[in-house]
Structures are given as structure tokens and as C-alpha cells.
Amino acid sequence: MKSIKSRLTLVSMVVLAVFMVLTAIALERAVVKRALQAEEDGLQLLIYSLLAAVDRDSRGLSITVSEDRLFEPSLVIRNSGLYALVYNRYKREIWRSESITVRFPAVGGIDPGEWDFQTVEHLATPYFRLGFSLQWPDVNDQLQRYEVVIWRNAVDYFEQLNRFRQTLWAWLIVTTILLLVTMYFVTRWSLRPLQKIGLEVKAIEDQKQSGFEQDYPAEIAPLTENLNILLSREQFQRQRYRNAMDDLAHSLKTPLAVLTGLGDQEHLDRPQLDTLREQTDRMNQIVSYQLQKATSVSDMRITKPVDLVAVIQKLVSALEKVYQEKAIVLDRRLPPQMLLRMDEGDCLEVVGNLLDNAFKYGKRRIDITGMVQADKSTSLTIEDDGQGLADGEIEQILRRGTRLDEATEGQGIGLAVVADIIESYNIGLEFSRAELGGLKVSLRFQTV
User: Fold this and answer.
1) pTM over 0.90
2) I need a surface site. Which of 234, 360, 372, 428 has the fewest CB within 10 A?
């Protein structure tokens, strides 16, 4: 996921959902634990009140419960949901409350003075059961062991617990949805400055504004301020460079005109005339090259991506008309679109020079191939069926002002300008022998 908003939203949803679920589980467990503790405490109080009504039987060998001293009326109401039993050491029932209408199993394994609280199911009905073991002296002052067991119907408890769980999870879902919606709008509001930066970068690419003009939060303001400073300095430096080159061109135009006029005079001998014309052409080449470099290579501001396929189609259409007498067969294998972040003028200069050389020196056929890889690296290859160049000639032709074909009109700076522009954009340039027999030029760059 490349979107920051999508990442934050997804992470927030996962974290919030996990947090709310864990909170609900912890809350539910705490409530259940507290409710069970309350049930156990209530049953303990009942046992204490039951023990207050315990006395020896008529023979003094055992104990019994005086029902007129019971403080809990539910023990004398049939099927009240609260039941009490007393067992001797042989697990024989010696007393039961009048509320009991069914048989309950005896409880064993309780040490004297210990409590045994459990939630059990008996006859398909849930119960809370609390057992207590005690020792009571008989008529001979010998301690006899007894167990008091309280049973309470837990149906109402579990129904209330289910209603609590339903309410808890319903409010959890509603709260989670409200929090997610709130976090979504908070995320959008928080990331709005980054969206503004993207819009302003687009405006700078389209040359609708020269810098960042919006007010940004304190965390982003230093970035936009420094970018504005960088853009201002770059623009000033570019303008200064252009002015210097204009001054150079203006200063050399008059001497060049004078030298050209002297070259036309007849009193100069042939060697002097050739030397004069050679140096004049050399100066013209230097001026043309520096002017071309000033207007293209130095223009390194933020640029809008250029569709390389559209540029190639435009140039090929023009070159086919210029070289129509050669009847060049053109084979284009290009993807639908190849976006390159490069100034459009520089792109036209680079591709135009390479295609012009292919049309100029090719005989019958030119192949143009473009490939976009999965890692967004792109290669553009231009091949012709001309004579091609040797390795030494390739190094020579990239030197400024050097031309291998002196008979062809031109100033000899085309490929030198191409090399400078390519280097400034960190684009790979390679010359080799083409399968067609001529020159193969390969460009490698990263698409947008």
C-alpha cells in the first residue's frame, strides 16, 4: 500500500479493533469474576445464618437445624431456588430445607474449615453450590464432622450474564464504528497538508507557480521553506547562467562577422584563408554549443513527466517527411506509454538528435524498441542499418565539436549536447553495433 492515508487507516482499524476486543474480554471476565465472588459471598452468609440455627438433637449425638431460627425465608418455600442440606461424616443426609423437592448429590472431600464453591449442572439446570465442613462436639464432647451444602438456582444469573454480554458487544461494535469514522476524518484532516504539497508540486511542474505558497504546520513548514529557497536559488542561478551566455554570444557576434568578412577578401592566400575559415567555424561551434547547453542542460527545475512514446511519434512523423526520398522502413515496438521525468525541451533534443542521426545515416531500415521492466526501469533502443561506428569513433564523436562526417551539414555538437543532457538526468547511454549492421543507441532510465 503506497498511500499513507490507507496505511494509517488500516493500522488504526486493526489496532482499534484488537484493543476494543481485548478490552471487552477483560471487562467481561472482570464482571463475571466479580459476580461469582458476590454469589459466593452471599452463599457464605447463608451458611453462617444456617449455622446460627444449628443445635444438638434430642439425643445429643448429632445436630439439627431449628427452622424457627432461620433468617432466610427462601429455605422454607418449596422450589424457591435456594436449598440447604446437612450431612454427617458418613455422607448421610441429616437435615434438609423445606424448599427441596428434588434429590441433590452429596459433596465430599472438604477439609474442616474449608469452603468449596462451584458452578455445576444438575438435572439440566445450572446451580451455584457452596460446601462447608465443620466439627461440632456431641454430648460426650467428642468432635463430630459435618458438611453444610447450599444450592442456588443459577438460571437467572446466566440469563443476566448473557444480556450483559449482548449489551457489551453491541456497544463495543457501535463505539468501534464511531471511533473508526472519527479516526478516518482525523487522518484525512491530518494528512491534508501533504495533499496540498502534492497539488503545489503539480502546479510547479505545470509552471503555474514558482514555489510553495500555502501555509503549512510547524512540522512541514521547514521543508517547504527550504524547498522555496532551493527553487529560488536554482532559478536565479539559471537566469544568471543564461545572461552570461547571452552576453558571450553578443560579444562574439561582431568579431565573428568581421572575421567572416575578412575571409571573403581576395588578397589572403589559400593557407591563411583556410585557417581563418577553420577558426571561424570553430568559434561558431563553441557559441552554438554553449547556447544549446545554457537553454537545456541547466534547466533542472521540477518538471512534469513527459510521455516518451508521444515524443517519438511526433519526431518520427517530422523526420519521415524530411527524409522521404530515402523511403526508410521504420519498425516501432513501443509500449502504450513511457513516462520520463525530464524537461520536454531536453527530451526533444536528446531523442531528436538520436533519431535524426538514424535517419541521416541509415540506409533502408530503422528499429525503435522500448521495454518497461517490473522494477520500472525502462530501456529505449534505436538501431539503423548504416555503416555504424568503431569503438574509437564512438569516443571521438562524443567529444564536443567533433564530426566524423565533414561532408554533411551540421555543427558537430548534437551528440555532445545529448551526452551532457543525459549525464545531467542520470540516464544511461550506450553505443554498440546493431544487428542491422549500423549503430545501436540504448538509453536506460527509471520511469515515473
Assistant:
1) no
2) 428
